[in-house]
Amino acid sequence: MYPREFEYVAAASLGDALDALAGIPGAKVMSGGMSLLPLMKMRLFSPAVVVDIGKVPGLDAITDKGDHIAIGALVRHHQTATSPLVTEHGAALAEAASYTGDSQVRHRGTTCGSLAHADIAADQPAGALAVGATMVAASKNGMREMAAADFFVDTLTSALDPGEILVEVRIPKAGGGSAYDKLGRRGGHSDYAVAGAAAWVTRSNGTIADARIAITGVGTKPALALGSMEAFIGSDGSAEAIAVAAQRATEGVTVLEDLYGSEEYKTHLAKVFVARALERALTRA
Amino acid sequence: MTTTTSALGGVIRRKEDPALIRGRGRYVDDIKQSGELAAAFVRSPFAKARIASIDTSAARAMPGVRAVYTIDDVRHLGSLIAQVPVGKLRPLLADGVVKHVGEAVAMVVADNRYLAQDAVEAIVVDYEPLEAVVDLKDAASDRAKVHDDLDSNVLLTWTGHEWWADVIAVEDPRPKIEEAKQRSDTVTVELEMVNQRLIPVAIEPRSVVASWNEGYERLEVYSSSQIPHALAGAIAKTFGLASTAVHVRAPEVGGGFGCKLNVYPDEVLVCFASMQLHAPVRFTETRRESAVSTIQGRGWVGTATITGTRDGKILGYELRVLADMGAYSQNFTVAIPLLGLWVSAGQYDIPAYFEAKCVVTNTQTTDAYRGAGRPEALYYIERLVDAFAREIGMDPADVRRMNYWKKDQFPAVNNTGLAIDSGDYETNLDKLLAMADYAGLRRMQAEARAEGRYIGIGLSSYLEICGFGPSVLSEIGFGWNNYGLPSSFSGSGLVRVNPDGSATVIIGTGPSGQGHETTWSQIVSSVLGIGTDRIRVSHGDTAESPMGVGTFGSRSAAVDGTATYEAALKVRDKAAEIAAHLMEAAPEDIRFADGGAHVVGTPGRVVAWEEIADVAYRPHRGPDGLDAGLEAHAIFSPGNATWPFGSHIAVVEVDPATGNVDFLRYIGIDDCGNVISPMIVDGQVHGGIAQGVGQALFEEAIYDDAGNLLTASLIDYPIPTASDLPSFELGRTVTPTDVNPMGVKGIGEAGTIGSAQTIVNAVVDALAPLGVTHVDMPLRPRRVWQAIQDARG
């Protein structure tokens, strides 16, 4: 609970923050601090500089941008979870945010912070993957957009460069319906995901026109379940089709055992939650 | 003039909450000393290793570092003092060989904790790893030793009939049990079960600050402790000081659950450092550190068998367990299984055999954790009664009822030779079944099963022993006298009516969340008629309270509460003489209520406490021969322990696809005798059940084969929050004890003792159609799911 010595920079603007990040090797961005500070206090991670963007104006809103909605870097989990806009266009992400941490954490931690932290058992990365989010990163060189599918690189590793800040997540207004469901470490939806899945689907003339399915908690990173997607797109969306798609939930994924589940159990859970997420997404599609 | 007085049993809100819930309470870490220094510890990363060398030179050279100590600096102080010095006592710092991960190897004292922690990282310890013994069965086999200088890893074996053979003669139950097993009309069910190790998670980690005052030649210590008097005694003995030269205060204590019912090396070492450095020295555990620097609880592995007739009569029960002591013996360590032994047969009048081998391992010490032996023991018997009921196809409620001690059998001598003064288990069960609508629940379950749903109803009856004495127990060969305390199990209470008619109450026990201020105010208010808002309760200060063994074993109300009650009676008697004089009446006709005294039958004419106190402090105004002052102190030594009991029901639904367990209902009927403060009692039951839920579903201290604790952080050691708990439906029966004049028994641990097996019984009941007979705790979804897979083959 006693971090090593570090320098603290309270950025007054995005430009300030980017300057600080670019100027000092080993600098780290902090928004809500819910992931960074525990690591520092346990001395598992000791950045030389912490750049706090908490007071940067203009980053704390969820806004309707016509063809998409934008979630700013300082939007708290609670805002994401309760936003009518996110609920309408990205229900999977709203649900994932509502299951993140506890009430205190949800009022402090940020959606962008959780995404950038890229925990293997976090909820919102799965939601972002399923709803086809676009990540917007700012650096001294300008803005860069990345698809969520390209953003989660490995355990606790995103595609952000050291000088970049995830300033916005965009959810396309793509129609269809989406959902997230999981088993938490304390049962139900409580705590990190032992396994969880998010799904987005659209229907057209009785068939599944498009779908994205993502899993979290089971592998080295939150990832699209490509096998399940392949099976489900073009299907009739029936219970049988769901079962077939769910069977392929961990295709291509290295499932990791931990204190909460064996490889066999987590593989099984991934299938269960892919099926449950699909069922609920279909009711909204 | 006061307006609110409270009878025993009146509902009042917790007096302490306005301070505590607004963050205005003062805990040890809030009490800053001028010029204080901070301590931090180098802790062993190995479960067993020889320390080849410790290089502290770099740390000593760091700015702000005042001292670095190793065992060579403190060996002369001896080992940590324990009440039960059986096994290997803990050295103040590792001496030659570390025996568990997290054992303190060196202590740094620096200008602040950050610098101290930096210096900890600069200390280089050269360890030569040795083979660690972690698994209980492996340890019990003595294949490898935890301590090379002990004959065996098995420190001692407790048995139910010979635990105090010199004093209490109890018949060996085994011949009867064996005979029952041989009968052709009996069935025997056996289960091997784990009652897993737990990490107590007090919301306030342990914290201590010590200041040696050279002028007064006195150590001033604040510690987050359940036993300030024992700590003062231990410190005084360690440093060869008079007990009056050590002043310990436990201010607000943020949870204890037994983990602060101990004296720790850091509590002694900050005193040492303060004397060396002539400055106050503080140590506060971090959360993760607490998992290895504070005792753990439970840790039993054992096999139980139950034998009975097909019509439900239990003819024998046997429990043989290995109990994990960890590496070192601290306060009570090897005595914890003894508390389970005493209630090993639960509420049942049955031949019962109990055997616990106390086994050391290269892990953190175990000691008292809420329930301390009783939750473990009740878990085994109550799981077995359910397994037996299922085997013979009888309703588990009927089997329990058939085998209870009956109301007219009390006082009854149980299978361990102890006298249970009172009980009425059947009435308690009846009330529970009615409140739960048990028959309706079973119908609902049958319907749900027909729909393919897995709903389970778990029942458990528990017996608790608490409020210890009798004081003769102190003759068993261990006790508080090791800490220099005058008595083993006595309680203390002082009641003083102040000149303004308010009252100060000083007690020898203190709260770590239990609401002593509310409860003691009600005790005194009920006797003196002074409003609870005019009563201040002072606790946890060794200079104020003449003695007190502290808060543990659900003893505070029954023992120190009784002492306070008796002190209040003495004050009342004296006040009655004064009031009688003022009102020209006979003292026996004086009654106290609503802030003053009146003559029986004429409540309109009142002499206020202010007037009575005025006379007490100016005795020339009172009756001839009146001694000045209006206070009394009483010490109460209980003639027996008390025996609370109860029965609980959990209703759960299991998701067979994930193994997830959902609560549908949780109903409990507890009997703690007369109730002083209903809201306090309910709160204790709520917290107790929450910790039972934690053990049943979430919590487990997991060590790997090398002795690494894998669950030191709350990320890996999930504890229940309010949102994980069902809404508890609670009720009471009231069977007063005659061990104390208030007829109160104790409720601090009952909820924990009654709940874990209730929940496991419910889950097993839910899965019974699949053939599942047992799942070990914690019932994390993975385990439940695996049990379903195994049952389905």
Can you walk me through this structure?
The complex is a heterodimer of chains A (285) and B (793). Chain A is of the alpha+beta class. Chain A folds into 3 domains: 7-52, 2-Layer Sandwich (Uridine Diphospho-n-acetylenolpyruvylglucosamine Reductase, domain 2), CATH 3.30.43.10; 62-172, Uridine Diphospho-n-acetylenolpyruvylglucosamine Reductase, domain 3; 177-284, Enolase-like, domain 1 (2-Layer Sandwich). Helix content of chain A is 34%, strand content 27%. Chain A is built from 12 helices and 14 strands. In chain A, strands 4-5-10-6-7 form a 5-stranded antiparallel sheet. In chain A, strands 11-12-13-14 form a 4-stranded antiparallel sheet, sandwiched between helices. A 3-stranded parallel sheet of chain A has the order 1-3-2, with helices on one face. In chain A, β11 (177-184) and β12 form a beta hairpin. In chain A, α5 (91-98) packs antiparallel against α8 (124-130) and α11 (239-247) runs antiparallel to α12 (263-284). The longest helix of chain A has 22 residues, at 263-284. The model of chain A has no long low-confidence stretch (mean pLDDT 96). Chain B has 793 residues and is of the alpha+beta class. Helix content of chain B is 29%, strand content 23%. In chain B, α13 packs across α14 and α16 (556-583) crosses α17. The longest helix of chain B is centred in the last third of the chain and has 28 residues, at 556-583. Chain B is globular. The mean pLDDT of chain B is 95. The interface between A and B is medium-sized, with 26 and 32 residues.
